[in-house]
Amino acid sequence: MIKRKEAALPLLLVLLGIACMLAGVYRGELKILFAKAVNICLECIGIG
Amino acid sequence: MDKKKRVLHRRTGVQAVWTFLSNCYAVGFVEGKIYTGPLKKICFPGLNCYSCPGAVGSCPIGSLQAVMGSWKFHASLYVGGFLMVVGAVLGRFVCGWLCPFGLVQDLCHKVPFLKKIKHFPGDRVLRYLKYGILAVFVLLMPLFVVDMVGQGSPAFCQYICPAGTLSGGIPLVLGNAGLRGAIGFLFQWKMAILAATLLAAVIVYRPFCKYLCPLGAVYALFNRASLYRLRVDTDKCIHCGACSKACKMGVDPVKAPGSPECIRCGDCAKACPKDAIQIGFTASKGCTAQQKRP
Fold first, then answer.
1. Contact B226 A2 (CB under 8 A)
2. What DSSP designation does B47 have?
3. Do residues A32 and A24 make contact, with C-beta atoms less than 8 angstroms apart?
């Protein structure tokens, strides 16, 4: 198994990442992301 | 079938299934429209344009630029956190097994060519280019190159991303007459980048992943620490060099098992005559993840 010491850093990053995601959801980032993702992104396809 | 071929087929199968699951909105391809359901709030780990007619999730790089370029936020905790979680758990396993554009390049590289190039002068230096693209086109330009209302555009998607042209641009332009009429220089520029990338992928293994991909650059930063990792058992290793010879990404797994360039494809483990290389979340006693060759 992965040594506990080796797993500490990635597990800490996972927890930090989850906390960041929740904070992002809480402050309303999903609204902007969703608005961009459900409309054709003209820049992405090389037209805008 | 030998064990190397078995793992190649298994990886191609996983890539194909994941590409299908990420782009299974078939109606979009028929009608020239995109999926607008609630799943689009979720980022998928690979480089998969959310303007692909079949895409059911969002591209993390596109999402990051969208949030950072908005007038309201200048950093994305949601996408940053997502990348941190995926990076810490999987690292560049995503590039090797889950990225749809990685699959496209893998298939291109199967096309026969006079001489496939594995090493060339400048290869090592060019690998740093993807970090520059991440910093300039994904982080700085959406933040500082803004319009009158303070909104930045997704510069990487706009000027570089060949995945967006392939999976979003081409199918939408073919299926949507309105978009066809709007084609201009930018579309031609992006088509040229796509053509150059695919042609290069025939000759060099995964040139976009090695030199240009900002998503690969993000995951590369986590590769050394990720839970899914590569380990070499020094007691078993006979330093025959079979693993580094088998690696198409130009990594020596014995010298650098946590290399940021390793996409965890498993070719090295399968090439090892002593089964000294293990890849996964677990490893046997005696293996170390970051040991150096004496």
1. no
2. -
3. no
Helix, strand, coil content of chain A in percent (nearest 5): 65, 0, 35
Q: What is the pLDDT of residues B83-105, one digit of tens each?
A: 999 999 999 999 999 999 999 99
Pick from A2, A25, A45: CB nearest B227: A2
pTM, full prediction:
0.92
For residues B272 and B212, the answer to whether their CB atoms sit within 8 Å is: no
**B1 by DSSP, 3-state: which?**
coil
- Report the candidate in B209, B196, B207 with the shortest Cα–Cα distance to residue B98: B209
Mark out the alpha helices in B181-236 (DSSP H runs): 185-203, 207, 214-222
Where exactly are the structural domains of chain A? Answer: 2-45
B85 at the A interface (CB within 8 A)?
yes
CB neighbours of B79 closer than 8 A, spacing ≥ 6?
A24, A29, A33, B43, B60, B63, B64, B67
Query: In 3-state terms, what secondary structure has residue B204?
Result: strand
